[in-house]
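Q: For a teaching session next week I want to show students how multiple molecules come together into a single three-dimensional assembly. I've collected the sequence lines for a complex. Could you give me the predicted structure tokens for the whole thing so I can convert them for display?
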Amino acid sequence: MVFSSYLFLFFFLPLALAAYYLSPKKIKHLTLTLFSYAFYGWANPSFMLLMWFTTTVDYTNGRIMGRPGSGSARRRKLALLCSIVVNLSVLAFFKYFNFGMENYNALMAAMGIPAWQFEGFFRVVLPLGISFYTFQSMSYVVDVYRGDAEVVTNYIDYACYVSMFPQLVAGPIVRFQDIADQLRERSYSWEKFARGVAFFALGMGKKILLANPCGKIADVAFNAVDLSVFDAWYGLVAYSFQIYFDFSGYSDMAIGLGLMLGFVFAKNFDSPYKSRSITEFWKRWHMSLSTWLRDYLYIPLGGNRKGQRRTYINLALVMLLGGLWHGASWNFLIWGGIHGGYLAFERAQGKESIYHRLPRVMQVGLTFFIVMIAWVFFRADTLPDAWRYFSSLFGGAPATGASSIIRGLIYNPYYLLHFIIAGIVVWALPQTWDFTRKITWPKIVWCILVFGIALIALTTQSYNPFIYFIF
Amino acid sequence: MDKPKKLSREEIAKIEIGHTTITRTQSLVVGGLFLAFIALYPLVQVAYEYHTRAIRTPLELQPLKIFPLLHQVKFTKNGKTLPAMLEYNRSLIAAIKKYEDMLEDTSALRAECLPTAQRFMTAIMKSGNEKVILGADGWLFYASDFNYLVNPGFMRPERQLKRSLSGVQPNPVQAIVAFGNQLAARGIKLVLLPVPVKPMLYGDKLRGDMGVLQNCSYDRFLVRLQAAGVTVIDVADKLAAMRRRGVEPYLKTDTHWTPEGMQLAAREVAAALARPRGRAVLRAKTVPVTALGDIAVMLKLSHPKEFFPEETVTVRQVATAPDRHAAILLLGDSFTNIYSLEAMNWGGHGGLAENLAY
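A: Of course. Below is the structure for the complete assembly, covering every listed component.
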């Protein structure tokens, strides 16, 4: 079930909101949890069990850590270790088992030992949102261990925090300490609800009207065998737009739904393509993930406190693992490595880009260029596909006859128009947070228009999940 | 003096949300309109279904069909528990998917908005939909055919791996050779006629190159088949030559070939098979047939003929009937059925089988 579907918009959401607001305060969290589990189980009922399992493990370990008494330091450490091992094992199995087997088989084949290969091994299905909720749940246990969060003594409250449907399958990653007070007490108002509606409408517009058309251009370009230089760059820019609007659109919808339920989630995107350096890019892109990596990986590794060399290593390592978090493939590792390498390089320059003396527009352009180059690895299905795409980008591959026909699709007025509008929205229009800070009648009309057009456009599109659902 | 504590992103968000500039009236209008819309739509859907589908009881309403669908999924344990549970889970997922597809396909919103939206897309945006690609000069192309050409080679290992997940033989050469061997064991020789998809011969209508375009795996596919002893009749070049002579081998708004294209293929197959003529004298007559192409129908426009006129073709109908003792068994898809089966709207008794016999 995706936010931009009839089922969610016209059946699930009204039922969920009605049940939530009609529930007495004592069982609001239970109601929300039940609806969230139904939302999650809709994709695959068995996944509910997995989420329930990790939720229970982390809740229990949190309670163990909260128990006073002798031996509590050792007990707390064991509980923390248990949580981390369980969560990472679950993540590793579901996410990396297939990747591991494929690489093992490839290695055995390369070494000429086919007898040691596992042919026809069962393929593990990746549960929706597992990367998000395991990180979210793990962060609670770490925070309790560090003393940054209080122990939750109500299982339903904790289950509600982990499973909350607005941000369950694709973030933002919400840390318990940041939402604990809202779980205890939160305000409801028509102003909050209205802003939530605005977020939701604009987010839906981003997804349906911008991400999807740009995504079609990108899909055609990246699936084609050999492209002309122009087609390849057009496809790559389109993908850059797609991933931004897809993910930020989802985040806006998640934030909007949270507001409708009385929860305030933090901003997840801050106009990242206006960044003037890669360092700045990571302060603006998927902020909930980058701060999670900073607080739970980079800082425990030593951060910048162990000398310059170690700082660069830490940056590179965190981004490598960040890449791997996105997916089980060498492509994601390379993508993370590019960003990690560049972050380390800019750190050596004093957190500035090498081109920081150039005019702002050039800094933004060059940063966008670097980000786009890295996106090739993120989008390409395989490593050879990524190299082939690079070849097309820089004129190394002649466009084959078959690929020439893609122009008949990706340059039609529909796709060209949406591509141009996407560019305007990225660089010239305010982001959702700024746009909705002051809501006026013209803005209300605009939101209604965007929502209405998105709904009508939805009738012409079939099922298209959000990109980050696969992580 | 202490440094002011840096606010977290969440704290900033809470402050920000608490300072939304919006009047009470505006909040009520926005919130009220949204809630009214999402809550009233299900009622609109119900009214729409009662009006269009002659519903007798509420249980026949599409939104409520989830209950009978889920009820039909049974947990049957024949052997081990885990496989049975996995199978039950798979069946649940299939039922849920079926329900969601049904809901979308029968929604009042789609029924009312799609024709208008598609009309705008076609007329102004020159765009089709997920199944249809608009070419130049009113030519329409099926997206699946387009994807065949532009996608990575179908013989590539990762493509085969993807296909293998569906439980089929992923290597088309192996599948065809295996089939050929089974036939050979029964004394039947397999002859393969891979029918070109329309974009292969009409690249110029898609701003692409002219000539015969092909998926990059095709040559390897052909070489391997021939090496395995399978006879392949490739008519792509001949159909392209036909086009160069001014005779269209494919219909403008349909996925399939014209009668001329099909008859060329029939002649090529007949020549390749070189079977002696039968004793029966077959009578043929030409009949004009006018219809709208299947791709135009896929656009789901309320008045497709406004954009795409019907095409008239001349079908050569042959007075013949299937013969269970015939020396040739023809197995094919819609390219075999067109002009043969009336249900395809392009007339009958004049398809590949009939013309091959003729």
